Each structure stands twice: as C-alpha cells, then as structure tokens.
Amino acid sequence: MSKIAICGGQKLNGEIMVQGSKNAALPILAATVLSDEECVLFNCPDLEDVRAALKIIDWLGGDTEYSKHTATISGGNIHRYKIPEELMNSMRSSVLFLGPMLAKLKRAEISYPGGCSIGLRPIDLHIKAFRQLGVTVEEIGGRIYCSAEKIKPCKVNLLFPSVGATENIMLLCALSDGETQILNAAREPEIVDLQNFLNSMGAKISGAGSETIHIIGVEKLQKVQYNIMSDRIFATTVLCAVACCGGDVILRNINPNHIELMLSMLAGAGCNIITGENYVRIRCSKRLLGLGKVMTSPYPGFPTDAQALFMSALSGAEGTTVFVENIFESRYKHVPELIKMGADIIVDGRLAAVTGCNYLQGATVEAQDLRGGAALVIAGLSAIGDTVIGGIRHIDRGYEHIEETFKGLGANIRRI
C-alpha cells in the first residue's frame, strides 16, 4: 500500500489550478441517470469517489467514459434497480443514486452506504422525505427497498439542512408531475451547481442557495454538456498549508465567495489575503494567531470538512483555538496523529482545545478519513523532519495526486 513521505519545513510558493469539486461532481454524476441521452461533464476530478460513481452507473446499465477530467455518460440502457453492497460501500454518496433510480425505474434497492468513518451520518432524513413524497420504503436486513409508481409532490420540511437529503429530493422530484418545495434546504454552493446542471437538462428548479427550493417536475431530461464548479475544500486545504508553512501562492479557478468565511478566518490568523475574479492569493510570513472559538455549522457557516484542516494549521499558532464539532460526532480521529507530531490538543466530547506549540515534529502517522488525512499532509509540510503518512486511500477519495499539488509549490513530498 502506498504512503506519502514528506520532508517538512519548506515554504510554499507559486500558482495552482483548483481541481473540480468532489462534492458537486458526485450528485451530478448521479443525476445523469435521469436522462436517456448523453451527458458530458467537464472539470470532473480524477478521484476514487468519481470512479466509484462511474462503476455504479456502469452496473446499472449505463455507458461511461472518463478521460482528462471529462466524463461522458449515456443512461439510455439503465435498467437495474439494485446496487450491490460492495459498490454501496465504496463511498458515502452512493445513496444519491436512490432518487434517480426511483424517478426512472420506479423502484430501487440499496444497502446502507459506506465512506469515511466520521460518525453515524444516518440517512433517516432521506427516507422520511421520500415517504412524504409517496415512496414506499422498507428496511430489512441492512437493505433498503423503495418503490413508487408515482411521486406525490408536496412540501418537505427538513429537520436539519442535510446536503445529501436536499440533493436526493431534487433528484427524485426533477422527473415528476407537480410542484415540490424543500423547506430548510441545505444552501451549499454544490446544491446550486446541481440545480444548474439539472436545469441545463430541462428541469425546472429554483431557489438553490436559499432555505427554500421549488421543483416543478418535468417528463423528460435532455442531453447536456456541463462544467463542474471548482472544489472549495481543496482550495481551503492549500490555503491552510500555506498559512502554516509560510509562502506566497495564487489559487486560480476558484470563486472567492464560496470560501469567504475561511478567507476571513485566515486573515484573522495573520495571513494576507487578496481576491479577484476566480482567484485567491495568500501570503504568510509569520506565526499564525489562534482564533478563539470555531464552531462547525451548515453553510454559510464554518464547514465540518474544514475543521481538521484548520486544526492542523493552527497547531503551531500563538494562543489557543477551541473547535466545536456540531455536525459529526466522530470527526477528531486525526487528533491522536497530530499529538504524535507534538500538537497540544485536548478533546472533550465535541470540543477540541488546541494550544499552539512552537513546532511540529515529523512522525509516522495514519490517515483515518479523507479530510483528516489531508490535515496530516498539512502538518507534515510544516513539521521539522520527516513524516510518513499511511492510509492515503482516504486522501485519494477527494484529492487528485495531492503530492503533485504541493510538489509544484516547492514542497519536498512524494508517494512511496
């Protein structure tokens, strides 16, 4: 199994292009199932999760091709309504195929999805919403059986603004007869990108990015060519690395509005931030300052996906930062690995108090999940000495050759 080796302490300088968004690509790939015609997706990132989604589409009967960040999908021959457990276990977002299969085939059978072990991440909000929309749902022996001859549009009020549930409802109701409203909808930019993609195929959806989404069902969706948005968490990863390593980096192909809060926090920690149309420049030449209290919350709040990244960056900051993880109950698995590197972190339930140390020391560590693994890369880049990171299959789920990204900025990093 491959590992990542880093000799830390190098400042980061240069320019990079931000990759296509994982969290936008996955629901959009699921959405291609809804059309019988060819869908071409540009800026589609080369990730393990993307390849897992393409395997699911192939299994269902679709025809897929992927080359040079372009995915071509034809769903005209999709006929299977069961997804095997091994494919469901390959990624969390496999559950997003539930809505499209129901909309197209009137039935679906899946197991509970896999992915990173960062908490329970139940799909009860998906199931409750589907039942409100007229879907018969049975849960037997770890499998979920769904059927619906006809969707019954209505108002669906989510108890929590779940990204996955919001997306699944959009995917289910895009092909329907009538109007559906999602109240307390998730507001993430990836939701807007899914709306834009579906509308480009002929759907009638409005309100994405707000708390209320309106869906007027249509009978058929057409072929489309579409450019997937850039990855705001990838951009945040690079920004956090520059913040703690020092340097001067320009990130291109990124909408600064999508990461406005993180940019403000980095500025508050002592970084110089310059933004323009589709780019961000970060310069940092001194020790960071602690940020006091940081609480994860749904967009436009501080994202749970950025929690580990900022914790790693602030492990060497002057002062203390207290993180409060409000989204997932098991998202501190990177903490013991950071402590191996000399970080001063105390965890109490959902709280993690980080007191900045003078420096991190290279060590052999293991990635337990996607963003925690990226946080260990950040720590290794800033640490004194050599760091070896195992479990990088988790990192590859969300980052295209992360070692090449940072090598291009001057880091001493390689895959071994």
Your description of this structure?
There is one protein chain. This protein is α+β, with helices and mostly antiparallel strands. It folds into two domains: 4-19 and 230-415, UDP-n-acetylglucosamine1-carboxyvinyl-transferase, Chain, CATH 3.65.10; 22-227, UDP-n-acetylglucosamine1-carboxyvinyl-transferase, Chain (Alpha-beta prism), CATH 3.65.10. 31% of the residues lie in helices and 26% in strands. It has helices at residues 22-31, 48-60, 85-88, 98-105, 124-132, 163-173, 189-200, 232-245, 260-268, 307-314, 335-340, 370-382, 393-396, 402-407, and strands spanning 4-7, 12-17, 38-42, 63-67, 70-74, 107-111, 136-140, 143-147, 155-157, 179-183, 204-206, 212-216, 224-227, 247-252, 272-276, 279-284, 292-295, 320-324, 344-348, 351-355, 364-366, 386-390, 412-415. Strands 21-22-1-23 form a four-stranded mixed sheet. A four-stranded mixed sheet has the order 2-14-16-15, covered by helices on one side. Strand 9, helix 6 (163-173) and strand 10 (179-183) form a beta-alpha-beta unit. Helix 1 runs parallel beside helix 7 (189-200), helix 5 (124-132) runs parallel beside helix 6 and helix 6 packs parallel to helix 7. The termini are close together. 53% of the residues are buried. The model is unreliable at 115-121 (pLDDT under 50).
